[in-house]
Amino acid sequence: MTWTENELSRIGDTDELAIASRRGDGTLRRPRTIWVVRHGDSLYVRSVNGPGSAWYRGTRDRLEGHIAAGGVEKDVTFVDADTALNDTLDAAYRSKYRRYSADPVDRITSDTARATTIQLAPTAKDHA
To answer: Which domains does the chain have, with CATH numbers?
Structure first.
């Protein structure tokens, strides 16, 4: 399954995304608010606090979850992003979030955050 142009625009244009990973029993963890960037036909997120962040660790369990942003709600699969995109995604974060202070932008483009870059892939699954 792929993102529609409408979904990409709505999610990519919003500042914040709510992300929740699935537990082993299939239920969703509590959503966390994070930043999201678009590159081409894909959406990417990072953990500003690196791999130790609880929400990021949750994405490693089942590689499935749910996102909500820009009026779009979607089940997703968490895919490790191609590290060759890191510089491009850094530029996307800097451009999109430049109106914020330098500290959070520097943190989301740090080596620690870059190591957690996830591509969000929409899934067709419906969970109760």
So the answer is: 5-122 (2.30.110.10)
